[in-house]
Amino acid sequence: MAPIVRIENVVKEYPLGNLVVRALQGVDLSIDRGEFTTIAGPSGSGKTTLLNLIGCVDVPTSGVVEIDGDSTSKLHDKELTRLRLHKIGFIFQSFNLVSVLDLFQNVEFPLLLQGGLTKKERELRVRDMVDKVGLTPQLRQRPNELSGGQRQRVAIARALVTKPKLVLADEPTANLDSVTGLAIIELMREMNAKESTTFIFSTHDPKVMEHASRIVHIVDGRIHSDERTDFLSSPLAETGGRAEAQAAP
Amino acid sequence: MNSLSYWAVLFVASVRNIFTHKLKSAVVGLLMCFGTGLVVTGTALLDSMEDSMSKSITSSLAGHLQVYSAEAKDELALFGGMMMGREDIGRIANFEDLERVAEQVENVRAIVPMGIDIASITGGNETDRVADTLRTAVAARDQAQIDLLRLQLSLMADALRSEFEAKQAITADKEALAADLQNLDRLQSDAFWLSLSDDPELAIQFIETKIAPMSSDGLIVYLRYVGTDLDEFTKNFERFEIVKGEAVPAGHRGFLFAEKFYEDHVKHKVARDLDRIHRQVHEEEKTIAEDALLRTKVGQMSRQYRRISFQLRPDDAQNLTSELRTMMPEVRAKDGAEPSLEVLLQAFLEVNDQNLDERYAYFYESIAPKIELYKIKVGDVMTIRAYTRSGYLKAVNTKVYGTFNFRGLERSDLAAAANLMDIVTFRDLYGLMSETRREELEQIREEVGAAEIDRQNAEDTLFGGSGQSLVAAPEDTAGFDEFRGQDLAGIREDLAEAYNQRFDAETVARGVALNAAVVLEDPDRLDETKAALQAAFDRSGQPMKVVDWQTASGIVGQFIIVIRLVLYVAIFIIFLVALVIINNTMVMATMERTTEIGTLRAMGAQRSTVMTMFLFETVVLGLLAGVAGALGGALFVTWLGHVGIPAGNQDTLIFLFGGPRMYPAFGLANLAVGLVSILVVSLVSTLYPARLATRIPPVVAMQAKD
Asked: In terms of CA atoms, which chain A residue is nearest residue B18?
């Protein structure tokens, strides 16, 4: 089976005044289904840029980004949007919940955008997802009534409710205290195992990094190192391990 | 396709966004609310005004539709147009034919023939009036009355003589003045008064032709009149009502003054001035002490004392003098002697805020009955003159039966712009010849030996050697004896005959009219009936123009269009400003929501979804604010409908308001127009910011670092 993400010699340049900033200078990366990968690196290293390209919210200046077999540079805005809607879930650093909608509505929103489910089916899916992130008692609360950790859990539920093949999280723990942050990573890891969803997240927190099955280090727009961790031996690693095995040449 | 829940959640999000962004919503909402209120109020007022004005016009003069010849050179303008009442609107050769066609058309209640023209009436001056009274006195052999009138004439002659003697020093035409002085001597001679018993008519004609022209206080009034079928007119124009006198009896010739015209132009000058001052003090709350214009008016009025003194009979003058002396003991002549009547009258007319009411009452109680309050009284026969189309001056005598008003428009000059006359007299005056007139003219031609000369033979006939004189040399006649030997009394009787002539309905119908008013059963179907009527005339081979009342009323009818235009321009400008403000506010709001929109886009919301959310927001806000504004406007109009909007003394407003106050009402159409226009404006003003929002890239969601 083809990898869920395939990146080949990708260059991304941004104009900055008269200068051109090269955020990525020839990156090759392949991520298999079911992996729990972190992209690490210092600020300005290009990790967010890489994540944007994988998340189809941006396209490369040159090179190929393939998501589930679709090359993003060939797609128009509408098709990219559809790709995001059906295959990718997002978890943001600042949670980015829709403040005027309550918890249930926030989680339900991607399903509504997708369409195709009955009201009952949607409700089942949403309740199930909210239950998994442990927020059933807060189902009708608005984001401003929730704590940071709770909000990020809502975001996780929202990202996963459509059963995407790939979930992207940009510094998901940066705005949380360390205990909550670890709990969120645990939750993501759990979802990764249960739903066999591929997770890619960026972080520069070594403690968070430890939980990943694969750590890709980016420095100055290039992949500096790409390593599998001990995490493989942990009980949760079984599913991840299978994915890795498939990806092996 | 998107489920209902999709729309529902977008809707919920939009509504909640409105209440979350309170400042933005307040600014935009207030603007929309105000805009809607303005549209509702403005259009409701205009509609009410149009309605009132339509009633003013349709129920006073125009009817719902007007018909006139398709060959007209100018456009019909019932209330006066660019040609000041001399528009050439062609003519309807035989009204009967028109009537026959119109009566076949459904929804037509009546068709009334009309002819509008301007004319002048010249009443005699004071001398003429005395001469006329003298004629009655002589006929009645009332010697006491004759003596009184002789005294009055003699006093007038004295006044004129002193004027002429002063004039003699500066005039170039001394001969004419000398002749006038001679005639005055003659009037005051005993010989003249002796001749009165020999040939009274001759003596009176002397007064009328030689003495009367010396004083210039005669009456010349120009007026517009409508010659019409008075019976039909009264029946079909519901606002018509008689104020003074009576309606012209069926089949009679006659004239009706518009009451306001009568009061403003025919009433005694001093009475008119006094009325006006009295009205301004009491209705406009001005004071003579503070209002310079009003003071000037009082000054002008007081100099008109001769208009009273000349009209008083000597015995009345004496009584009034003593009464005024008692009333104003402080008034003295310049040399300190007992004041004369003229000095007293001048002082009496110098009214101030304190004595105005008292003197106004005294004037109407004690002076008015002794003078001629109206130059032409109800019941009088007056001579009315007009130029015919071909330029001849025509004159007819007509009896004044009374005055009329259009209910609610009592104080509008516009509504009083036309006086009424029977159409048969109109035809005479307009120079449209009846059979008898034609015969008469033929007879005169024969008598003077005038011959028709055709173009080819003109030179021969005029300058050829036949030696026949075409025009007889006028005999040298001069002096007042030019009437000697003629049957003057007989001629007067002939003249009297003309206005007493009766006519039947057939005469009214069978003849010329200039235009015709069509009154409908159901005015709401005006356009439909107009088309049907036009088609009927086209089919019948009578080339006629059918126009609605608004077009027919001329400039007045265009008022409402102008006002509407002004309102629309004002609304347009206000909306333009609102558009810019709403647009700016929304752009700012969009900027604030970049992350939220970017997040939605990242999650997979298409641009159209973002657009929908924005439009929802505007529409919901527009509806909320619009409904509030429409309700506000409706309440305001309802309140105005209770208290009424006063027209004040603005003549045009009275006419537009259909009376002294307008009581506006709003219709559902006004509300709908208000709501729809505000929704359109808000949608248009949201297009740019919404488009801006759809351009927000999903990547901004990732950049949000708290």
From this structure: A100
What residue ranges do the domains of chain A occupy?
34-62+74-247
3-state SS assignment for residue A227? strand
The pLDDT of residue B554:
75
pLDDT in tens, B646-673: 887 777 778 778 788 888 888 888 899 9
Q: Does A246 contact B at CB distance below 8 Å?
A: no
Q: Which residues of B touch A94 (CB under 8 A)?
A: 595, 704-706
Q: Contact B13/A78, CB-based, under 8 Å?
A: no
Backbone angles phi, psi at B127, to 5 degrees: -60, -40
- Position B332 scores a pLDDT of 80
Contact B599 A85 (CB under 8 A): no
Please tell me the predicted confidence (pLDDT) of residue A248. 36
Instruction: Determine contact: A20 vs chain B, CB below 8 A.
Output: no
Antiparallel, parallel or unpaired: β B65-69 and B544-548: antiparallel
Cβ distance A100 to B16 less than 8 Å, yes or no, reads yes
pLDDT value of residue B218: 63
Report which of residues B486 and B444 the model is more confident about: B444
Pairing assessment for the beta strands B381-387 and B419-422 based on DSSP bridges: unpaired
How far from A136 is each of A92, A133, A150, B480, CA to CA, in Å?
21, 8, 11, 124
Q: Which of A57, A72, A99, A111 has the highest number of chain B CBs within 10 A, making it the mutation to test binding with B? A: A57
Cα angle for residues B209, B215, B219 (degrees, 5° grid): 85
Q: Is the pLDDT of residue B160 over 70?
A: yes
Lowest mean pLDDT, pick from A56-60, A230-234, B425-429, B559-563: A230-234
| CA-based torsion, B673, B676, B679, B680: positive or negative | negative
pLDDT of res. B132? 81
Q: Which residues pair with B686 in a beta bridge?
A: none
Q: Do A94 and B12 make contact, defined as CB atoms within 8 angstroms?
A: no
Residues of A in contact with B701 (CB under 8 A): 57, 90, 92, 96
State residue B520 phi and psi, 5-degree precision. Answer: -100, 155
A86/B13 Cβ within 8 A: no
What average pLDDT does this structure show over B253-260?
91
Residue with tokens 């919503």, as numbered in its chain: B25
- Which stretches of B461-600 are assigned E, i.e. beta strand? 515-520, 544-548
pLDDT recorded at residue B37 = 92
Q: Which residue of B has its CA nearest to A113?
A: B605
Q: Are strands A70-71 and A62-67 parallel, antiparallel or unpaired?
A: antiparallel
- Which of B1 and A3 is assigned the larger pLDDT? A3
Q: Which of A48, A81, A98 is closest, CB to CB, to B604? A: A81
Among A14, A43, A88, A98, which would you mutate to test the B interface (most chain B Cβ atoms within 10 Å of its Cβ)?
A98
With CA atoms as reference, report the closest residue to B71 among B548, B552, B546, B544: B544
Count of A-B CB contacts under 8 Å: 103
Cα gap B100→B299, rounded to integer Å: 59
Q: Provide the edge-to-edge strand list for the sheet that holds A36-40.
A: A88-91, A166-170, A198-203, A36-40, A214-219, A222-228
C-alpha distances out from residue A161 to A110, A165, A166, B314, Å:
8, 11, 12, 116
Residue A44, CA distances (Å) to A215, B10, B20, B173, B378 in order: 18, 37, 35, 115, 106
Q: Which CATH class is domain A34-62+74-247?
A: alpha beta
The pLDDT-based confidence of B407 (bands split at 50, 70, 90) is confident
Rounded mean pLDDT, B357-373 = 90
Closest CA to A160 of A120, A182, A193, A137: A193
A interface test, pick of B694, B702, B703, B705 with most A CB neighbours within 10 Å = B702
Predicted pLDDT at B467: 45
**Cβ contact B68:B544 at 8 Å:** yes
